[in-house]
Amino acid sequence: MSRVPGFGRIDRSRTVTITVDGVPYTGHPGDTVASVLLAHDVHPRTTSVKYGRPRGITGAWTEDPTGLIQVEEPFPEPMLLATTVEATDGLVVRGVNGQGRLAEVADTARYDRRHHHCDVLVVGAGPAGLVAARAAARRGESVVLVDDRADPGGTLTGTETIDGEPSPAFVADVVAELADQPEVTHLQRTTAFGHYDDGFVLALERRGDSVDGYGLRTRQRVHRIRASRVVVAAGAIERPVVIEDGDRPGVVLASAARDLLHRHGVLVGREVVVFTTNDSAYAAALDLHEAGAGVRVLDARDEAPRGWARACAERGVAVTPAATVRGTRGEERITAAVTGDGTEIPCDLLLLSGGWTPAAHLVSHVGGALTYDETLGAFVFGEPVAGVEVIGAANGTLALADVLREAGGAGAPHAPAEDDGAPPRVLWRTEGDPARQFVDVARDATVADIARAVGAGLTHPEHVKRYTTIGTAHDQGRTSGMLAIGILAELTGRPVAAMRPTTFRPPFVPVAFAALAGRERGDLFDPVRTTPLHAWHVAAGAEFEDVGQWKRARHYPRAGEDMTAAVLRECAAVRTSVGIMDASTLGTIDVRGPDAPVLLDRLYTNMMSSLKVGRVRYGVMCGNDGMVRDDGTVLRLAENRYLVTTTTGNAAAVLDSMEEWLQTEWTDLRVRLTSVTDHWSIAAVAGPRSRDVIGAVFGDLDVSNDAFGFMTWQDTVLDGTPVRVARISFSGELAFEVSVASGYASAVWARLLAAGQAYGITPYGTETMHVLRAEKGYPIIGQDTDGTVSPHDLGMSWAVSAKKDDFVGKRSYTRPENRNPLRKQLVSLLPTDAATKLPEGSQIVGFCADGRLPAPPVPMLGHVTSSYHSAELARPFALALVKGGRDRVGEVVHVPVEGELVPALIGSSVLVDPEGARRDG
Amino acid sequence: MQLISCPWCGPREEVEFSYGGQAAVAYPEHPAALTDEQWARFVFFRDNPKGPFAERWVHAAGCRRWFTAVRDTRTHRFVSPSEVTS
Amino acid sequence: MADLPVPTLPWAHPLESRRARLEDVSAVRQELSAPVAAVDLRLDPAGAGPAAVAAVVGGPLPERPDTWTALPAGLALRLGPDEWLLTSSRARPEDWEFGVDEAALAHGGSAVDVSAQRTSLRLRGQRARDLLASCCALDLRPASFPRGRCAQTLLGQSAVLLVAHDTDDLQLFVRTSFAGYVADLLVDAAHDF
Ligand SMILES: [Zn+2]
């Protein structure tokens, strides 16, 4: 065991058991998969993606480029880091070689999101973040403080002194003070992963996986935080020095070894060589020594820092200045470090510290410029970004005393200054074979690869990144990115300051799609809109179809019926007796005001001002380009009031467009629009017996043809409730539409069904409605049209007013193209075999006498827009847009269907009751 | 998720709004008097500047008011929230 | 207005089928509000119109954006520069429309019956705002959205009208066809409360 008594913040009183590659290991709450393995002297070993070299872990947190694992239990999740997965009882993982596995079943866990608003968001609960959050809270600001580790304190190890007390006590005090403030939200295990416009930050909270109760509690939560000010206190990331064979297991970042010791009580090696370019690794050297390791320090600088050298001497830690490590020896694990002069120092652990790179990602996300700091050898926060502050190590401030001062201002806590420190030396790599000097171990990319990129003429870091793939792995170049730029500068002989670093983009850490989706999965993926009759349709066994966000009953199959059979039955019922359909999804707009007739005259192609009160007119709306956008009926309720219906899918778009005209163009018109789509529920009662049904339910109405003519409406009352009945037909049959406030829809529907029982009233769905209207040649906007179809193309020149000076689209009709006789026109197609149902979308070609398609390019005449079986015609039929179609009526064309050419006869678009004899019953 | 300032409701998330394209493209007074090309210019052609651009937005999920806002197309920043267009 | 015969046709709440599921949520009480008469009033705010309508509905119309005032048996909610939603739990919808419309018409305005256009949920409890904050991006902290405020915004992907009655008491109006989605969303969001 490599667990050291007296070190670590794990809960030794409890144990957890995890299984790694089939072997069970015990650990403690507070452990990660990595720390459990290391405590058992098991060095996680993976194989590099390109060269198959053995790799261990090199970091202690998200900076680790190598220790990828696959979680199997509680739920499969690929490509996680052993250093970041908390050890929980029952966890099962295995090491992966670059490729993980996704679950084949749906994840049952819950993911959600929460919105926050605050004066200041502090990212990072290390010393800088804690002090900044406390200062803001004391000023009375509302604060959200997020930190990605399990507990606060950041890089504090517990050995520091702040304001005269041990750092753990200081951290506990600050946390307690923040917890007392109602305006402070403090979240651990929460990674701010993206920073967007206007102070918007996304943070992922890991709420813990329990193997037993997987999915019971929300597993991950995305916090959507809108902050007036964002304080980035995300720390810095230590980087190694690139050395030959520096990818060998047992080569670890100095800070990671120290973190594993103080956080998890794990000593990663017994014989330790520390190779550093700066002061920070000395603390690691001394701490590992105190934990029982033999430690030697090689400092790349000509002189070791005097204060640290003294401390090392006192404890018997040898320090050699002006020394480098050039490479390593060993197979599965390092056995020796090779110094610059060729000496081999036996060791089982080589700690590297090549300096610190500020974690400036959240600044970069919002376009913050970074500038090169020569002393630090890293890019730091450059020009200020409004509303963003960077403090502590994230700002390049590394000494604790300075960090506290920077974060806390005048009332900052105090820490003793480190004395006799020395500035770091910027050193990207030591002498060695570039092909064995790994820069990005996750991508197996070496100094030689960078040299090859330079040889190929690439000199910009962004280009070199893409050429070498450095920085494109799961860690996004946390430890390798700066090294690559430094080495690129070296190879091109340019100063680093002249380089522009690669842009960091969200997310800072990998985020599961499930977390981003939150609860917008399954039934909540998209709003499901239902009519008040939805429960009835379900009970009646309806099959539904999605129309926009609506669920509409498509047909009502009886036992043994498929859709074709059900629709034929429903069609026959409407044509021979009576059917009833829920038409509540139609868009309905109340148009009020003295200028309402003017507005509608401008928006519809036909005349609406001449419509008499009490009457109904069909209308077509076009765009400025003259193409059909929508259609529907218009009821004139009063001199200054109309009720306009739109197609189900276009309701919102039509209203928005009408408002746009009114609010931005015709602001002089005194008209007001109100959406009443959800207010009115509409039942369409259609068929020769519909008059009997309506007459039976609404006793006050005279439903005779003389008293209640086609395209008129009347108000009536049913048991004290107002009802509007209109004679509108979308099937060619005698038909009525009954509108009532939606709360009464079920009651009215029940009455209609009861009254219709004598006639076998048959509920019919949208599919049946489509067939019935197609038999009459009524187009469905969006099915038979596609934005390039004019009313004339649909054969509806009768609906285009010649009298009006202007209306939306009118000017476009005088273009020569609009009069082109070869424009596609709506016609019917009857397959001559009277058996084939032509697939919708099929292309139409001219008649090929030899039964074979001509050589490509095959001249296309048009395409099938709608196609059904007709009960009335006892055969399949289709609607189609065909070039010059109306002049071709009577011609036979061909439609390729599954490799066969099916002959079809072009006919007029109206196939049933062309004289319109049925509409009056 | 940018904030857009509705002149009536104040700043709201951009998903509450719909875009209406270039502002102040007036409907021609006499469409019939235009040549086909002039008409096509009105129907299909819009500016595409690099820099400030006056455009129309509607607060679709809120007050349903259309308004004009000037946005810098290089940065997406709204330059000056203006009043409801007239 | 009150003495006319009450309709005897059965009326169904759009969320009736979800009543039990909503009541199962213990952390935040979610009640189906009783139906009210409601009109969408469009009126020039500058003229004498608002005062004339106020006289008919029995209380002043809210002047500031996104605020509401109490009427004797309902609410007056400001939806836009020239738009209000006026509700009454006493009047019959057709009478409410007629009365408000008549007053508005004289000042170039109009009122349209929208009683069945929306339905409403009342959310009560200390965590009512937290629950909404799991689906709504608006700043709903009591200081930003105090009693007297209302707002049309998005809850999940549905447009809603939120009304602050008190710190622990909010109301949500939603279009009838979206009500099921919104109720399911809130029940789901309350899972971890
Ligand atoms: Zn608005």
Task: Explain what the structure shows.
The complex is a heterotrimer of chains A (921), B (86) and C (193). Chain A is of the alpha+beta class and 921 residues long. Chain A is built from 19 helices and 49 strands. In chain A, the strands form 13 sheets. In chain A, strands 8, 9, 12, 13, 14, 15 and 28 form a seven-stranded mixed sheet that branches. The longest helix of chain A is centred in the C-terminal third of the chain and has 15 residues, at 651-665. The N and C termini of chain A lie far apart (93 Å). The model of chain A has no long low-confidence stretch (mean pLDDT 95). Chain B has one helix and six strands. Chain B has one helix at residues 36-44, and strands at residues 3-6, 10-13, 18-22, 52-58, 66-72, 78-81. Chain C has helices at residues 19-23, 49-57, 93-105, 128-133, 179-189; strands spanning 29-32, 37-42, 68-71, 74-80, 83-88, 110-113, 118-124, 150-155, 158-166, 169-175. In chain C, the strands form two sheets. A five-stranded antiparallel sheet of chain C has the order 1-7-10-9-8. In chain C, strands 3-4-5-2-6 form a five-stranded antiparallel sheet, with helices on one face. In chain C, helix 2 packs antiparallel against helix 3. Chain C is globular and about 50 Å long. In chain C, 54% of the residues are buried. Chains in contact: A-B, A-C, B-C. The interface between A and B is medium-sized, with 23 and 28 residues. Bound molecules: zinc ion (ZN).
The SSE order of chain B reads EEEHEEE
Distance between the termini of chain C: 44 Å
Helix content estimate of chain C: 10-25%
Give me the count of strands of chain C.
Answer: 10
Q: Mind telling me the CATH class of chain B?
A: Alpha Beta
Under CATH, the topology of chain B can be stated as: Folate-binding fold
Oligomer kind: heterotrimer
| Proportion of residues in β-strands of chain C | 25-35%
Q: CATH homologous superfamily name of the largest domain in chain C?
A: Probable tRNA modification gtpase trme, domain 1
Given helix and strand content, the structural type of chain B is mainly beta
Number of strands of chain B: 6
Order of helices and strands of chain C: HEEHEEEHEEHEEEH
Tell me what portion of residues of chain B adopts beta-strand conformation: 35-45%
Most residues in contact: chain pair: A-C, 53 and 50 residues
CATH class of the largest domain in chain C: Alpha Beta
Q: What shape does the CA trace of chain B take?
A: elongated
Q: Biggest sheet of chain C, open or closed, and with what strands and sense? A: 5 strands, antiparallel
Low-confidence stretches of chain B: 82-86
What is the strand arrangement across the widest sheet of chain C? 1-7-10-9-8
Please give the largest β-sheet of chain B. 4 strands, antiparallel
* Chemical compounds bound to the protein: zinc ion
